[in-house]
Amino acid sequence: MPRFNPGENQSRAGAVVQQVPHLPRNENLLAFTDELGPVVSLARWQRADCCDAIVANAGIGWVLSGGLRKCLILESGQRRIVDLMMPGDFLGWRMDDARHFSFEVSTDEAITARITRRDFNALAAMRPELYQFFLESACQTIARLENHILVQGRTTSLQKIASYLSSMSRRLSTQQDGAVNLPMSRYDIADHVGIAVETVSRAITELRRRGVIELETPRCLSMRNTQKLDDGVPDRH
Q: Which of 12, 17, 56, 227 has the largest CB neighbor count within 10 A?
């Protein structure tokens, strides 16, 4: 992926980002945002804010700090989380995202960037290296969603949660057995995986009992056996 290096003390995006401690800071994305210049608009959001405006009129956005949820509300009123976006993740690749989904802030604060579809299309001819960054980011989004499909395809709820925690730990930390602070509640996990929140809690308790994970706080997990997490942790009979 291309790298961008704006001059020292010239980073507009970096100046406004108050990084959430437990989420990774994407320096390359901050520099990329600055390279785009005035065609980018930045916005600051608070927890539970609706940020559908990012993708309004087929806009394309990305997360600089904090986290967002991409949700679908079913006719029954139930919420389904389609994606959990962290720094470096993009939203609005589909031109009709605003019509089908809602977006809301999942952390205490979030900062996002936005570019219009017209300016995005113009990059292909005017700034091909920036356009390439967008395309490679789109590929990363596809890979992340494909991985989540595999998580949902696990046979049992315990295996689903084990695979989910393994996937999330890789997104949040480069240390294989390091502690990670989950930027979502167990209700979010339940709505993302598609199971009841009580089932999520029981699965986490069982993983802790087996020594696969340790809980420092309800959201702070230490991975003690990543191979079992990757394998999905077979149920015991």
A: 17
